[in-house]
Amino acid sequence: MKLLVTGGAGFVGATVTRLLLDAGHEVVVLDDLSRNDAAQVPADATFVQARVQEVGDVLTPDAGFDGVLHFAGLISAGESMTHPELHWEANTRAGLNLLDAMRTAGVKRLIFSSTAACYGEPSELPLTERAITMPINTYGATKLAVDLAIASEARAHKLAAVSLRYFNVAGALVREDGGMIGERHDPETHLIPIALEVAAGKREKLPMFGDDYPTPDGTCIRDYIHVADLAEAHLLALTAAVPGEHKIYNLGSGTGFSNAQVIDAVRTVTGHPVPVEWLPRRPGDPASLYASSALAQADLGWTPTRTSLEAIVADAWAFYQGR
Ligand SMILES: NC(=O)c1ccc[n+]([C@@H]2O[C@H](COP(=O)([O-])OP(=O)(O)OC[C@H]3O[C@@H](n4cnc5c(N)ncnc54)[C@H](O)[C@@H]3O)[C@@H](O)[C@H]2O)c1
Ligand SMILES: O=c1ccn([C@@H]2O[C@H](COP(=O)(O)OP(=O)(O)O[C@H]3O[C@H](CO)[C@@H](O)[C@H](O)[C@H]3O)[C@@H](O)[C@H]2O)c(=O)[nH]1
C-alpha cells in the first residue's frame, strides 16, 4: 500500500514507519517537527515537513494514497492542563482537517492513535473498550473528540477506520543490525525517559507527582506497553479495517506498575541511584490505568510479548545510551 504517516518523526510514528517499510509498503511521512527533529525518520521513507492542518497539499486526489496512519499531535497530559488551546489545535482541529482532506482525496482507510486518557478516571479495571469515556484531562478530551468524528465519518462516508487506544508506550525498537528507534521527546515529559536522565546524571532528581493516591504505595499505576509490540498492532489493524466501520481497540500489556515500581526498575536496570523529589499530584492524572486488550487479541490476533517491566526499561536504557 501507499501510506501517509503523520507524526512519523515521533517515537511511535517512526517505529511503525520502520515496520511498514520492512513489510514492503511505500511510506510518506508528514511531520512539522514541532516536537522532534527528523533524525528518526527512516531513510527509505519520503519525508515532508508540514503541519497536518495543511495535509491537503500532500493528500491530493491524484497522489494515490491507500491509507493514513495518524500519529501527529501533542501527547502530554500535563501540558494539556496548562495549555489546552495547543491540544485542541494540534489534536482536534488538525484531526478534523485530516478527515476533510481524506474525504476530498477519496482515501478510505485510517488508523488513529487514540489513548487510554479517553476513559478518564476508570469506571472499571482492567479497562475494556466498553468503559465509560469521561476524560479528566484536556489531552484525553481532544483525542476523544477525534474518535467521535471518525465514528461519524465511517458511518456517513464509508471510511474504514481503527482507533488504537494506547496505554503508556515505552521501550525502544532494537533491531538485529543494531539500529534503534526510541523516545526523545522535546521537551521530555514521560516517567521512564526522565528517570533514565536522572540515572545518567543529566538531571539531579526525579520529580514524583503525588504519594497519596488510593494505590498500594500511594503512587499512580500505569500499564507500560513496549513500542515494538504496539507497532505490530498497526500492521494488523491496517488489514482489519472495514469500510463503514470504526473499530476501537485498547493496547496495553494488561499489568499495572506503580510509579515507585518503575523507578525501582530503572535503578535495577541501570545500576545507578535515582533520587526522587516528592511533589504534589499533577493535575489531570487518574490514579490507576491498565488495559484489557482481549478484544485486540481476539479480533486482530495481536499478542504483546515484551511485557516485563525490566525488559522494557532495558531497551529504553540501551537507546538512551546509544543516542
Ligand atoms: N507515547 C505514548 O505513551 C502515547 C500513549 C497514548 C497515545 N499516544 C499517541 O500516539 C501518537 C504518537 O505519540 P509519540 O509518543 O510518538 O509522540 P511524539 O511527540 O514523539 O510524536 C508526535 C509527532 O507529531 C508531530 N506533530 C505534532 N503536531 C503536529 C502537527 N500539527 N502537524 C504535523 N506534525 C505534528 C511532532 O513533531 C512529533 O514528531 C500521538 O498522537 C499520541 O497522542 C502516545
Ligand atoms: O517527571 C515525571 C513524569 C511523570 N510522572 C508520573 O508518572 C505517571 C506517568 O506519567 P507520564 O509518563 O507523563 O504518562 P501519562 O500521563 O500516563 O500519559 C501517557 O500515557 C497516556 C496513556 O495512558 C497517553 O495517552 C499519553 O499520551 C502519554 O503521555 C503519572 O502518574 C505522572 O504524574 C512523575 O511522577 N514525574
Automatic annotation (TrEMBL):
Which protein family is it in?
Answer: Belongs to the NAD(P)-dependent epimerase/dehydratase family.
Cofactor dependence: NAD(+)
- EC number in record: 5.1.3.2
Q: Which PANTHER family match?
A: UDP-ARABINOSE 4-EPIMERASE 1 (PTHR43725:SF53), UDP-GLUCOSE 4-EPIMERASE (PTHR43725)
Per the UniProt entry, what species is this protein from, by scientific name? Hamadaea flava
Q: Does the keyword ATP-binding apply?
A: no
Return the Gene3D superfamilies for the record.
NAD(P)-binding Rossmann-like Domain, UDP-galactose 4-epimerase, domain 1
Q: In which pathway does it act?
A: Carbohydrate metabolism; galactose metabolism
What is annotated about its quaternary structure and interactions? Homodimer.
A Gene Ontology molecular function term of the record: UDP-glucose 4-epimerase activity
* Protein name (record): UDP-glucose 4-epimerase
**Domain annotation NAD-dependent epimerase/dehydratase: ranges:** 4-252
- Reaction equations catalysed: UDP-alpha-D-glucose = UDP-alpha-D-galactose
Q: State the SUPFAM superfamilies in the record.
A: NAD(P)-binding Rossmann-fold domains
Asked if Phosphoprotein is a keyword of the record, the answer is no
What is the name of the gene encoding this protein?
galE
Please provide the record's keywords in A-Z order.
Answer: Carbohydrate metabolism, Isomerase, NAD
Identify the InterPro entries for this entry. Answer: Epimerase_deHydtase (IPR001509), NAD(P)-bd_dom_sf (IPR036291), UDP_G4E (IPR005886)
